[in-house]
Specification:
With about 350 residues, this protein is α/β, with parallel strands linked by helices. Helix content is about 30%, strand content about 20%. It folds into two domains: about 170 residues, Peroxisomal Thiolase, Chain A, domain 1 (3-Layer(aba) Sandwich); about 150 residues, Thiolase/Chalcone synthase (Peroxisomal Thiolase, Chain A, domain 1, 3-Layer(aba) Sandwich). The protein binds coenzyme A. Its EC number is 2.3.1.180.
């Protein structure tokens, strides 16, 4: 069995910007841009259209192209995320009528679609997913400075999508092996400096932006209720898929967001509370770091032993969630302290 391309769809925003349009506001020319880059015009978002709108349209067309609605994972590769948090893929999936399927974003800039194909192939061939909708979507011009003649002329917006499902290696559309690589030593050569953790958004006076819009907002009760129900359902599915029972589990390694959420999930699963691993007291919610930190803490203190069966389950913004079962290996562990 191998991963095979089953459908394709694309979408661009309606607004076309020519080199002459750009030359009206920047010290450049149609000739310079054409001679140096080959670009004559580009589609650019304006007004309300954003990454998600393009992703949805491309995704819909790819689904139509594949003539299937049996998608069980949506991956969006984007360099222009709709919001810093959460990933856009869950919302795209919802809008495509795929609410509830696995959905998340990947970031690998212009290599993102190829990385996404490799990721989708891995999911399909390992049996984690049957059919993946992979979307590459960008409203990147929103992140490019209109006053910078060295960058503004060279980017455009749009989205493309592919449905990737199971097939045979000799089938047309079969996806072959990949070579992937990266060189982080040159990351400054092509980057967006601010807006991430290293340099937060600043206002025109150079002060950290004061608006709440630049910071996380949360409806705690809605998150709490969904965390409990989705982690419970997802855990049950994962345990079942791995031919196990709740009684056979040694530990629940749950994302450390709130001890009461973990206790309630354990209660719903009929899992004794003594099997709920937790280090939230020492760490709070460390997002993507929470599960590995918990595993390391428990393994390093010998509470977690080789051969023990772990339910790993997480829930977060998106909303998105995931669970699996792992038999803990015999690993050397190290202290978590900086020094
Ligand atoms: N119009 C007119 N002049 C421009 C210009 C523009 N849009 N952009 C840059 N220039 C000027 C520069 O200021 C420079 O002037 P100077 O000699 O007085 O300093 C001159 O043109 C040459 O600049 P340079 O950067 O050497 O031009 P180039 O031939 O390398 O072409 C790119 C510039 C950006 C087109 C080219 O380097 C390129 O395509 N790089 C790869 C970019 C890319 O692919 N990015 C995405 C990766 S996923």
């Amino acid at each position: 069995m191998t991963a095979v391309i089953r459908g394709i769809g694309v979408c661009v925003p309606p607004n076309i910007v020519t080199n002459d349009d750009i030359s009206k506001t920047l010290d450049t020319s149609d000739l310079w841009i054409r001679e140096r880059t080959g670009i004559e015009r580009r589609y650019m978002v304006d007004g309300e259209i954003s990454t998600m709108d393009l992703a949805i349209k491309a995704g819909l067309r790819a689904i139509e192209s594949a003539q299937t609605n049996k998608i069980d994972m949506v991956i969006v590769a984007t360099t222009s995320p709709e919001r810093l948090c959460p990933a856009v893929a869950p919302e795209v999936a919802d809008k495509l009528g795929l609410k509830g399927v696995a959905a998340y974003d990947i970031t690998s800039a212009c290599a993102g679609f190829v990385y996404g194909m490799a990721t989708a192939k891995g999911f399909v061939e390992s049996g984690i997913a049957d059919t993946v909708l992979l979307i590459g979507a960008e409203a990147f011009t929103k992140f490019v400075n209109k006053d910078d003649r060295t960058t503004w002329p060279i980017f455009g917006d749009g989205a493309g999508a592919m449905v990737i499902g199971k097939g045979e290696p000799d089938e047309l559309g079969a996806i072959g092996q990949f070579d992937l690589g990266a060189d982080g030593s040159l990351s400054d050569a092509l980057c967006t400096h601010a807006g991430g953790a290293r340099q937060r958004v600043k206002d025109s006076l150079g002060q950290h932006a004061q608006s709440q819009a630049y910071y996380l907002s949360m409806n705690g009760r809605v998150v709490y209720e969904n965390a409990v129900s989705q982690m419970t359902q997802s855990s049950l599915k994962a345990v079942r898929q791995n031919d196990l029972t709740i009684e056979e589990l040694d530990w629940m390694i749950g994302h450390q967001a709130n001890i009461r959420i973990l206790q309630t999930v354990a209660y719903e699963l009929d899992l004794p509370e003594c099997k709920v691993a937790s280090n939230i007291a020492d760490h709070g919610n460390t997002l993507t770091a929470s599960i590995p930190l918990l595993l390391n803490d428990y393994a390093h203190s010998n509470q977690l032993k080789p051969g023990q069966k772990l339910l790993i389950t997480a829930f977060g913004a998106g909303f998105s969630w995931g669970s699996t079962v792992v038999t803990w290996p015999d690993l050397r562990t190290y202290p978590k302290e900086w020094n």
